[in-house]
Structure formats: C-alpha cells, structure tokens
Design a protein that fits this description.
158 residues, Porin, twelve-stranded antiparallel beta sheet, 2 helices
Length: 158
C-alpha cells in the first residue's frame, strides 16, 4: 500500500491514500515555548498532541512529551522520538536510514528486525515537500503508527 504525504501551509503535513485524507498534522510554534504538534484524523478529531522537548536536544534527535492521546482511536503510545514509536507494552517500530548520507528522506521502518515499510522523498528542493510511504500489504495493522511517527518527526522539519 502506498500513502502520499504532502506539505501544506504553515508546515502542516497531509497523508493521503488514493486521494482520500487519512491524517494531517499542525504545528504551534513559539520561540519562547516548546513546539507543539497535533495530529488529527480525517474527521478533524485530535488523536495525538505532542510537545518537543528541549531545543538543544532536538537539534540532534527529536524527542517528544505526549500531552494528549485519544484512546478511542489509537492504542497507548508510550514513547515517540526520531528513531522509534513505542506503543502498548512491548511493540516498537524502529526507523532505519537506508543510506548513511542522504539528501532526502529515505529510510525503512522495522518491527523486530523485519522491514515493514519505507519512506522516499519524491521532490527535492521543491517549495512543498512530497513523500511516498510504502507499507507491506501484510503489515497494514502498523500503518497508523508509521504515519503518526512520520508526521510527528517531519512537521516543521525544514
């Protein structure tokens, strides 16, 4: 399955499958306060609100404090950072860079060491970013967590 993620206004990101909106993200930026990222489903229902932790830490690695999660739509997310999304008690989806040096976003998502999806940036140096997320058909149960991880880490990622 392929999901397209397109950048909108104010660094928001929109995830589409077959031209149907699945999720979108928004950002509240204040230089004196920490950046907040909100992720909504296609019905404009807030499913996750995150706050980036310390500014200097985020220069190296995104690390988020979970402010709100809508348990009616997602299972318990315990941790989210640049490298992984950890949910329930023992499920971790890990992001691995495909290339050591890359000018675009090219990486895979793995569960227990097995590749379940990948991300490719389709437009380079464009005014709006465009990404293609591919999920193995037999791993669709992880789709929402991969999309949430991607949105959290790439909203306002210039």
């Amino acid at each position: 399955m392929k999901v397209e993620i397109v950048e909108g206004k104010n660094h928001s990101l929109y995830a589409y499958k077959d031209n149907e909106l699945l999720f979108y993200s928004t950002m509240d930026f204040n230089f004196w306060k920490k950046t907040k990222i909100k992720i909504f489903n296609k019905n404009d229902i807030l499913i996750l609100e995150l706050q980036r932790k310390e500014f200097f830490i985020n220069l190296i690695k995104n690390d988020f404090k979970i402010l709100f999660q809508n348990s009616g739509f997602i299972k318990n997310i315990m941790e989210i950072n640049s490298d992984l999304i950890h949910y329930e008690e023992n499920k971790k989806i890990v992001k691995n860079n495909i290339y050591f040096l890359s000018f675009g976003s090219q990486y895979s998502y793995n569960l227990n060491g097995i590749k379940i999806g990948k991300v490719n940036q389709k437009k380079f140096w464009a005014s709006r970013r465009f990404f293609l997320v591919e999920i193995n058909d037999n791993d669709l149960e992880y789709l929402e967590y991969i999309i949430i991880h991607f949105l959290a880490n790439n909203t306002n990622d210039e």
